[in-house]
Amino acid sequence: MGTLHLLGVCLVFENSQVARSHDWDLVKLRMSETSRVAFGGRRAVPPNNSNAAEDDLPTLEPQGVVPRGVNLQEFLNVTSIHLFKERWDTNKVDHHTDKYENNKLIVRRGQPFYIQIDFNRPYDPRRDLFRVEYVIGRYPQENKGTYIPVPIVSELQSGKWGAKIVMREDRSVRLSVQSSPECIVGKFRMYVAVWTPYGIIRTSRNPETDTYILFNPWCEDDAVYLDNEKEREEYVLNDIGVIFYGEVNDIKTRSWSYGQFEDGILDTCLYVMDRAQMDLSGRGNPIKVSRVGSAMVNAKDDEGVLVGSWDNIYAYGVPPSAWTGSVDILLEYQSSENPVRYGQCWVFAGVFNTFLRCLGIPARIVTNYFSAHDNDANLQMDIFLEEDGNVNSKLTKDSVWNYHCWNEAWMTRPDLPVGFGGWQAVDSTPQENSDGMYRCGPASVQAIKHGHVCFQFDAPFVFAEVNSDLIYITAKKDGTHVVENVDATHIGKLIVTKQIGGDGMMDITDTYKFQEGQEEERLALETALMYGAKKPLSTEGVVKSRSKVDMDFEVENAVLGKDLKLTITFRNNSHNHYTITAYLSANITFYTGVSKAEFKKETFDVTLEPLSFKKEAVLIQAGEYMGQLLEQASLHFFVTARVNETRDVLAKQKSTVLTIPELIIKVRGAQVVGSDMIVTVEFTNPLKETLRNVWIHLDGPGITRPMRKMFREIRPNSTVQWEEVCRPWVSGPRKLIASMSSDSLRHVYGELDVQIQRRPAM
């Protein structure tokens, strides 16, 4: 007769087989009962929102009084556990986790992996009962997915946890363990529990058996399943990316080290969710994980990873342009437990991409050229003009960013109607408040294209970023406003991302919007308006008769520190004689379109003969702009003109990004895993002024950890060199990335492609 005492209840079983059959229900009942705490007159479990926090499960759970002379250690006991967690082992290779610099077992959910358990004697399935258990957090509950007892089954079933014995040899048992494709993503503690007639013997807490479980784009049942291998290699496994910036007629690129496999990064990504106090039960849902990530990558309102700064003052941190990748930022955030200074949109996007790819969510960075920051998502950017054509800066509140970077994450959207899964726009740059926090998305790109802005999350804001109209409005002295011109093609001019398998640019504009003028484009806009996107009536039906005079202007390619020329062309398409008063405003601007300072203004009159054109050239001298340059050396030109005879107003605006000198990277020595090679970074100062407080950053995933070096000053036309010895640990195509920042010159980059060979076989 067996007697079990459980929480003050005495249960008597006539047969030990009966006791065995009730065993695990009692264990689970006991675990859930003992983990409950009473709060405010009701019974509840405290929040389970930390992967790092843990409570040990008891190694011995006696059930009843153990008779004298019975030694529980004489029953089946675990002597050791093998997880096959080396980089070359099947588990890591098959689960595409062999690149992680982490000596723990890392697997992807919904896919079998192997473990081996050694016992003190041969396992006999007729009389021995054991289970593998996975636990995460402090208050494990089976119904929350934080306590997972894995049943031993004869055959693994798709979509369910299970463990199948695939080998029995002497005292060892090898199991094929399969996790659920909906399993929580995080770091689990592993135990093996053995049943005896007198209670449970459980292995003690052993950090060496901790197991990370990640999202699985290779598993058809996973919400992030991606069916194209080349896309999986690019959007999950590629640890180096290309970010596009500049402006639409002068697109510039820079490489970014995502470093999602670097030592400590996986733990930091889990720490980010812990800092957000995200409930563990929601961490298997990519919708929730990406939304929390979009809030936590910026520090606004939640002590997240990065502090944003757009004021060109970075005295207490690193200028955004100096970062070469995400690794330094994430590791500093975890070690200091404080937000890192500073970031701008491409830095937020780079770090967020690391977070998503590291956890197994396919992700990419996209750049939208002429991106509307429309505060009230009313689908229009209002540029107010004075009656003489000058821009009224007090009334003009909306801004058009030269470019804006955000992320896309790939997932199903079971919360939306069929057809809106796939790429989701997620943005961690703190622009607007969403449900009380600075975050954006996930918003279905397909829903944005078709105007279905009613579907969560934040679709109206993203729709406005790529679809707003540019409205030129004259603010008259009597207080009335007159719409002069509507430019429906300026915003969302080009949306791009890195091409698959290469460093080139892939145009994805048509995934966000239909071509201007198409019937589908008009229908998408009407759908967005129907679903609540606001558009003031003042611009509805405004169709001004087209002026008989056209105006355009070109800015020649400009090199930092050199003069440049701007050419304005006026064309008279009529048989009439016209006189024109034109106004040029040249500004130093942030890439967000916000003006810092006007460095040149000029008014001039033009006389146009019938059916003729005339060009006006304006010289911009280097001395006019050099003293006030910002982070990205961006100049913005605004030209307005009034045809005096017809009172028509013509308006055009363009930006140019100055060409900046580059860093030169050279390598010498064997480019082989485990062998020393010498990396040299070189820079020549082309300016007429001395650069002071110069920092050069160097990064190269798989070749070197991020490092930096300071030079007090670099005199005009002088060259500095920095040499470092590096020992690569990853073979294949790699990239060295360098950046330079100083008090007066930033956004200086250099990169070098290198092919690292495998270590020769001995």
From TrEMBL:
PROSITE patterns: TRANSGLUTAMINASES (PS00547)
Residue stretches making up the Transglutaminase-like domain: 337-430
Cofactor section: Ca(2+)
Protein role: Factor XIII is activated by thrombin and calcium ion to a transglutaminase that catalyzes the formation of gamma-glutamyl-epsilon-lysine cross-links between fibrin chains, thus stabilizing the fibrin clot. Also cross-link alpha-2-plasmin inhibitor, or fibronectin, to the alpha chains of fibrin.
Enzyme class: transferase
Protein family membership: Belongs to the transglutaminase superfamily. Transglutaminase family.
Protein's UniProt name: Coagulation factor XIII A chain
EC code: 2.3.2.13
Short name of any one Pfam family annotated for the protein: Transglut_C
Cofactor remark from the record: Binds 1 Ca(2+) ion per subunit.
Subcellular location(s) of the protein: Cytoplasm; Secreted
Stretch forming the signal peptide: 1-21
Active site: C345, H404, D427
Gene Ontology CC entries for this record: cytoplasm; extracellular region
Keywords from the UniProt entry: Acetylation, Acyltransferase, Blood coagulation, Calcium, Cytoplasm, Glycoprotein, Hemostasis, Metal-binding, Secreted, Signal, Transferase, Zymogen
GO molecular function, one term: protein-glutamine gamma-glutamyltransferase activity
InterPro entries (UniProt xref): Ig-like_fold, Ig_E-set, Papain-like_cys_pep_sf, Transglutaminase, Transglutaminase-like, Transglutaminase-like_sf, Transglutaminase_animal, Transglutaminase_AS
Lineage: superkingdom: Eukaryota
Catalysed reactions, as listed in the record: L-glutaminyl-[protein] + L-lysyl-[protein] = [protein]-L-lysyl-N(6)-5-L-glutamyl-[protein] + NH4(+)
UniProt subunit comment: Tetramer of two A chains (F13A1) and two B (F13B) chains.
Binding site for Ca(2+): N467, D469, E516, E521
GO biological process, one term: blood coagulation, fibrin clot formation
